Amino acid sequence: MFASRLAGVLVLTLIQAFAALALAGEADKLTFTGQVLLADGSPVAHAVVERQGTNQHETFPTQADGEGRFQVSDRFENGVHLHVRSADNREQIVYQMPAPSVRVQSRTPHHIKLSPASLHKVSVLVAGQPVADAEVALTGTGFTATAKTDSAGQAEVAIPQGASLRGVAALHSSRGVGGQFFREGSVPQESYVIELQPTAPHEIRVVDDDDQPVAGLEFGVHAATGNFEFILLSPLSNTRVRTNESGIAKAAWIPRDKLRVVNPQIRSDDWKEDALDYKRMADGITVQKLRRKHPLSGRLNVPAGVDPTGILIGGMGFGSGSRIDRVSARARADGTFKLMVVLDHSYILGVQDTEWACEPWTGDVRTEADSEQAQVELALYRATPVTVRVSRGPDHQPVANTFVQVGTERQFKYTNEKGQRGTALGSLWCWLMTDADGVGRAAVGHGEHKFNLSAGDWNEERKVNIKSNDSVEVDFHRAWVGKRKIV
């Protein structure tokens, strides 16, 4: 009896130990759980829950169980973007949540109700003749949908109802590639025609700070032709490439004619995309220079009794190259966090949360300090709740599903690759989306903040100076519906 009890204790101890190790490995992540339902509340067995990667260059699918229950783990630094659909793709939805809300709202499971998907036909042609077995990708806000053309060169693609479309693209392994790109997003049309154009192999050479090859790096690629008409194919698995021991990745599907740019989509905590050299693009070669990132330790100074686990720290860095370095991390239970940064860059860092805020930190990253020593400290205080209302027309009709960007800016010094000191304008931003009542909610710290509304042809900015913890309301209203003609 004692032996069996001892064995049980040992098993329980091992389980707890493994759980502790798993939690330590996932200390920078949150777990989002939910259940997928139909409109009538019945569960959707084995629904597909697809998490969208940064800029949708990659997707990460999870299958729900027989009762539609699922869980996904991620840092969610850009918020929750889930493309949820039934196994037959007939019911779909894009489920989104702003990054500052995820920590608190992930504590309880979420019910996600699907709606009937909309169907769109894509015809793929070469010289006016249909192309069978071409891969088709429709990319929009929060989703990517794929299909293959039939013998008539047509594919029927199901996407979430009311979605905004960014790109339609098609690829055939031997016949060519083509696509359409919508810079501001587009209301999906009933059908599209894609004319394939010939391709040519293209080398992407990836090098580090010392011009040494970076091997074993996998990534997607975007390409643009003509007037920077991007072909968005990086979510397709067979368009992804990997560098060999010489740091060279070969993309076979790049358009041959009128090529303007080949843009690797490298998203990694270990590397920053520093500069893109396309001087030899006509020779079929693009060079992507990366800067290696290193750990930077920090700490949140929290009021007594506050659990900071999962609070999001984010920001951006300036230094060498033409790209900004975006960083993020979530705090541990003791308030510590670790960011991956470029050592000679300067950063603006802050907190994005619905309960807590801090004064943004700006400065140079010190390279001589112990990596375990906290180099950044952020003092938390209660955030100010903000309610955003968006309406149109004389009756103030609410405008739903509208994005509003919320940000604060600071000026600070940085050093460029030539060793010259300059001034950067860095910003900390997040987004919110209005609900059916045209209302969105956020929380911010003290100081001036910008609220930028983007709804089709309606773009407007409000500046609000927060001086206390009293709740604030920001109203966006247009007295007319649709477009107004000015004579």
What does the secondary structure layout of this molecule look like, with pairings?
Elements: H1 2-25, E1 30-37, E2 48-52, E3 59-63, E4 69-74, E5 80-85, E6 91-97, H2 99-105, E7 110-113, E8 115-116, E9 118-126, E10 129-130, E11 135-140, E12 143-148, E13 154-159, E14 165-172, E15 176-186, E16 191-195, E17 202-207, E18 218-225, E19 229-231, E20 241-242, E21 248-251, E22 259-265, E23 271-277, E24 285-292, E25 294-301, E26 312-318, E27 325-330, E28 336-341, E29 346-352, E30 356-357, E31 361-364, E32 376-379, E33 381-382, E34 384-392, E35 397-398, E36 403-415, E37 421-433, E38 439-444, E39 447-455, E40 458-466, E41 472-478
Explain what the structure shows:
This protein has 487 residues and is mainly beta. 6% of the residues lie in helices and 52% in strands. The strands form 11 sheets. Strands 3-2-5-6-8 form a 5-stranded antiparallel beta sheet. Strands 9, 10, 13 and 16 form a 4-stranded mixed beta sheet that branches. Strand 11 (135-140) and strand 12 form a beta hairpin. The chain is globular and about 70 Å long. Mean pLDDT is 89; it is low at 1-26.
Please summarize the sheet with the most strands.
5 strands, antiparallel
Number of helices: 2
Average pLDDT confidence is 89
The poorly predicted ranges are: 1-26
Strand % is over 45%
For the CA atoms, what is the radius of gyration? Answer: 24 Å
Number of strands: 41
Structural class: mainly beta
Instruction: Give the overall form.
Output: globular
Strand order of the largest sheet: 3-2-5-6-8
Helix amount, in percent? under 10%
